[in-house]
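Support request, please re-run this one:
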Amino acid sequence: MMTFTIINCMIHLQNFKSGDLPFLNYELDEIQAGFTSSADSALQKIKERNDKGDFEAFPVTIFMKEIPVGFFVLDFGNDRLELTENPKSVLLRSLSINPKFQGKGIGTISMKNIPEFIENYFPEKAIEEIVLAVNNKNTGAYKTYLKAGYKDFGKTRPWKNGFQHFLSLKI
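Re-run finished. Output below.
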């Protein structure tokens, strides 16, 4: 098993490419797997949506230098409207970081980089808000989002593993 030490790393986001997938096939522990989808599972859901003519979900790879270390989806579809009334919003979903790289600030840095990524890759969408739902038992992810500037406005909903908090970042 390879291990990596992160010292002054550079974190950046890129549109997912199929060559990223072998690096993103990491296994999450049972608890984390209950809160998010694997990259492979999220990509399958995107394919199923695309097959139905829904082309509103875009996978993104998180890189540390040139190594893919994480993944998430930006979803411009109608699911976002369950969390906000803002039509100029995007839903962040299926975020995960390879367990070998967790606890090093990669998630926080990545979440702070999303507004610039959206402006660069989706300027035509004129996005004003990023929304997400995080399970109340997923305290690590919740703290990561708060550190990155996302706000909890007190909205929740019941979900399969407990309640989810709705968080938002105005951009």
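Residues 1-8 have pLDDT under 50 and may be disordered. The chain has one domain: 11-170.
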